[in-house]
Amino acid sequence: MFNNIDINKMNRLMEENKDAKQIISRLLENHHTTVSMIAHEIRNPLTLVSSSLQIMEAQHPEVKEFYNWKQMMEDVQFMCNLLNELSSFNKSTILHHSVFSIERLLRNVAVSFAISLDAAGSDIEFTSHIESGIGDFTGDKVKLEEMLLNLLKNAKDAVEADGKISLTAKKEEDTIIIQCTDNGYGIPEDQMSSIFEPFVTYKENGTGLGLSLAKQIVEAHGGKICAESTPGINTTFTVTLPV
Ligand SMILES: Nc1ncnc2c1ncn2[C@@H]1O[C@H](COP(=O)(O)OP(=O)(O)OP(=O)(O)O)[C@@H](O)[C@H]1O
Ligand SMILES: [Mg+2]
Q1: Least packed by Cβ within 10 Å: which of 29, 91, 143, 150?
Q2: Tens digits of residue pLDDT in 171-199
Q3: pLDDT at 125 over 90
């Protein structure tokens, strides 16, 4: 894995030398494609294994009593999620632009999230305040939705059973400011600098790709993402997107 010093050196090399820039860009592209292909190839048979296990469980419910069955199902699901995230992680800088109402997108995401909480019988209090008149936005709708869902999922993971989560959005001059706040366990100061790095997770079953994916998506749109947290009180992720 590259660290910040390596990345700075690479950027300097690319600035100083056009040939190096071309070769490093091609190497990076090649690396991304290889990782995506491997993730994709492993995901296909794994999805078959996962479906077979689910059918087996439906036809023979007694298997649920097997020692470690539940754990195994969770592990298989985790591997499927990891491979999904890995392949989208590598595609997160390639945007498919369209012009759309970001206000509608935010409202849809809020409604889907509220429905998912309801469906799970959750007591989490979710509120959203999306300013009207935010207007149209040019960007990748699917990726922005993925980014927002990652922030909301993290908030949900962080709060207590009766915790609070809010999603707000407003326009300020030429930027759209989206904030996701929760009153969960928060992020200790010593973890703050690493949470956006790929594969950094402090959760038992986390992949550590959610926030790095979110950051790549926001930055590919020319925006910024940052986090502020007072552990035990509240945590806010702020996404600023230029219009
Ligand atoms: N709202 C939040 N409150 C507290 N901690 C958070 C919050 N959002 C992120 N974090 C911290 O940042 C870490 C990295 O988050 P990220 O989304 O990248 O990975 P993850 O959530 O651990 O795994 P995955 O996204 O695959 O479920 C988390 O493990 C968690 O410690
Ligand atoms: Mg996450």
Answers
A1: 29
A2: 998 999 999 999 999 999 999 999 998 87
A3: yes
Strand partners, 203: none
C-alpha pair distances (Å), 98 with each of 52, 132, 196: 38, 20, 27
Q: State residue 27's pLDDT score.
A: 83
Domain 98-242 has CATH 3.90.550.10: no
Ligand 1 neighbours by CB, cut-off 6 Å: 150, 154-155, 158, 182, 184-187, 195, 200-203, 206-212, 235
- Which residue among 84, 146, 185, 195 is best mutated to probe the pocket of ligand 1, counting the most ligand atoms within 8 A of its Cβ? 195
- Segments making up each domain of the chain, as ranges: 4-89, 98-242
